[in-house]
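Example protein was shown:

_____
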Amino acid sequence: MRICKSGVAQPSQVDFQSEMAAINALAKTELRPEDVYVFSVLLCDNEVDRDFERFTEDTLKELAELFVGATGIADHTWSAGLQRAHTAGRPD
């Protein structure tokens, strides 16, 4: 299992215009770069978990489509108090 909690942003090669287009496709109003904070999150991978199970590559691709626009929460409580992010699709 790979857990990264360094707290240090890594430079990325993401096309900024594409990123803003993906964000605005899900936003209720047009957002500007200074209106958002963008970060990457690893939601799941195909590493073996504590129950000795893992996602297949095909399943990860299916999940990627389902996560677009989903709300990220910090625990398993469905209250809005610990919502942290909405996921935006990224072009491959």
Summary: The mean pLDDT is 77. Residues 47 and 60 are 11 Å apart (CA to CA). The longest helix spans residues 16-26. Strands lie at 71-73, 83-86.
